[in-house]
Recover the amino acids of this structure.
C-alpha cells in the first residue's frame, strides 16, 4: 500500500514569491495534517482536516498561508508571499480517525516532506 | 509553550548496548504517548506508543516506560543496532482529537 505522497520534495524560491505543496494521503484515511518542521525542532501542527473540513487551523498564519482539501482526499498548502523565515520542511500526515479507527489508535503516518528554501 | 521536552539533543551508544531516550511533558491532560523515528530526507515513522492507563509497552527490541507521576517517559532499545541511528521524536496527545505535540528530537548514533 502506498504511503503519504508529497510533492515537490524540494523547492527553492525567492522571497515574496508564491509556493504550493501537494499531499496525497493514505487511501481511506479521513484525517489529514500539515506540519511545519524547523531545523532542530519537532513538527508543529499548522492545520488538521477531517474529511474536507478544517477542524483545527489555529496555528496557521492566515495572512499568508492557505490550505484546501476540496474533495476530502488530497490537499494543497500555499504560501503567498513567502518570507525568509518560511524556510523549513513541510510535512503532511494522515490517519484513520474516529470510531472507524478505534479509540486510542489514530496513528499518524507521515510523508517525506517538502524542504522549502526561501532566498 | 514547550509541552513536550526532549532535553538530550544527541546520544551515542555502542552496538549491542542499551539506548535510553528520555522525554518529559508538562500537560497532565495528555493520555497517549508515541515515539517516532526519522531518517534523513524521510518523514517520521511511527515506532511505538503507550496509553496513560499503562506503564510499560514492549515491541521486540523497543520498550516504552511511562511514569505519570513524574510526567516522564522513556524509550529503551535493546540491543542497539547501527540501523537504529536516527532522530527519535517523542509525541503526546490528549483525548481523541489527535492534537499531537512533539518534542525537539534526540539524535541517536549507534556505533559498530
Amino acid at each position: 500500500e502506498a504511503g503519504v505522497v508529497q510533492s515537490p520534495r524540494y523547492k527553492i524560491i525567492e522571497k515574496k514569491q508564491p509556493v504550493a505543496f501537494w499531499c496525497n494521503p493514505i487511501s481511506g484515511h479521513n484525517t489529514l495534517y500539515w506540519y511545519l518542521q524547523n531545523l532542530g525542532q519537532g513538527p508543529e501542527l499548522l492545520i488538521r482536516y477531517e474529511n474536507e473540513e478544517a477542524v483545527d487551523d489555529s496555528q496557521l498564519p492566515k495572512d499568508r498561508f492557505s490550505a484546501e482539501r476540496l474533495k476530502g482526499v488530497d490537499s494543497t498548502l500555499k504560501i503567498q508571499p513567502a518570507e525568509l523565515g518560511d524556510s523549513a520542511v513541510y510535512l503532511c500526515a494522515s490517519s484513520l480517525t474516529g470510531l472507524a479507527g478505534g479509540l486510542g489508535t489514530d496513528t499518524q503516518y507521515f510523508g517525506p516532506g517538502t524542504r522549502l528554501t526561501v532566498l | 509553550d514547550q509541552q513536550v521536552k526532549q532535553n538530550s539533543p544527541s546520544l551515542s551508544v555502542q552496538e549491542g548496548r542499551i539506548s535510553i531516550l528520555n522525554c518529559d511533558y508538562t500537560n497532565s491532560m495528555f493520555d497517549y504517548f508515541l515515539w517516532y523515528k526519522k531518517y534523513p530526507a524521510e518523514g517520521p515513522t511511527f515506532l511505538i506508543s503507550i496509553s496513560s492507563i499503562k506503564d510499560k509497552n514492549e515491541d521486540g527490541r523497543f520498550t516504552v516506560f511511562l511514569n505519570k507521576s513524574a510526567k516522564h517517559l522513556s524509550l529503551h532499545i535493546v540491543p542497539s543496532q547501527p540501523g537504529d541511528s536516527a532522530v527519535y521524536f517523542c509525541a503526546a496527545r490528549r483525548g481523541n482529537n489527535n492534537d499531537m505535540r512533539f518534542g525537539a528530537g534526540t539524535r541517536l548514533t549507534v556505533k559498530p
Notes: Chain B has a mean pLDDT of 94.
